[in-house]
Amino acid sequence: MNAYLILWSLALVALLAGDEFFYRRFRRGMGSEE
Question: Which domain of life is it from (predicted)?
Fold first, then answer.
């Protein structure tokens, strides 16, 4: 297995699964002040 493939896989999973989590948290933090 190539290290690049593993990194890419983790990055894709993080983007797909963590996208909503980070978006919600980021929007919540910014929306609170704004």
Answer: Bacteria
- DSSP 8-state symbol, 21: H
Distance separating alpha carbons of residues 33 and 24, to the nearest angstrom: 14
pLDDT > 90? residue 25? no
Taking the domains of the chain in order of start, what are their residue ranges? Answer: 1-34
Please report, as a single letter, which amino acid is at residue 4.
Y
Q: Please tell me the distance from the alpha carbon of residue 32 to that of residue 8, in angstroms, as a whole number.
A: 33
pTM over 0.85: no
